[in-house]
Specification:
The protein has 176 residues and is an alpha/beta fold. Helix content is 43%, strand content 15%.
Amino acid sequence: MKQGSIFWLTGMSGAGKSTLASTLKSKLNKNFRVNIVDGDIIRDKDDSKLSFSYNDVLLNNSRIANYCKAIRLDYDLIIVAVIAPYDEIRLTIRNILEPNFHLVYLKSDINSLRDRDTKGLYLSADKGLITNLIGYSDSNPYEEPSNAELVIDTSNLSSEKDSFSKLYKYVSENIS
């Protein structure tokens, strides 16, 4: 039986993961069975309140990967939108989900992320209300992927169409 392709969108908060995933699903849903797995939704559904410590991020990302593995026969493609900040965790995820796993890094400069801070996380971190914001706090870095199949710079808000076009082209060429 054919396994669905998995496109794992990683990047810091505000890089455009959920927005691009949603737009991609609406475009592809006509011809393919598509599911979006959003890291925030999975985290919020969990009864145990996970922190953003390394171990809790590893646990959350592993849960997401295993969930994707369990449902991938039901879909042509699964789009995952989650920060997944550490290379070691992304390698573990890749090992769980290969073959037909594609890591897409949505890269954005910090000023752009702060400017479009839809969740108010960067503002909260600036005020000291959040002390371990991934990629923004010194104590909790975001490691740029060393092995992404596709890197899209989403720094410029006017590039949302360009970002989508690059992602759509890549996904269309790599749906198995």
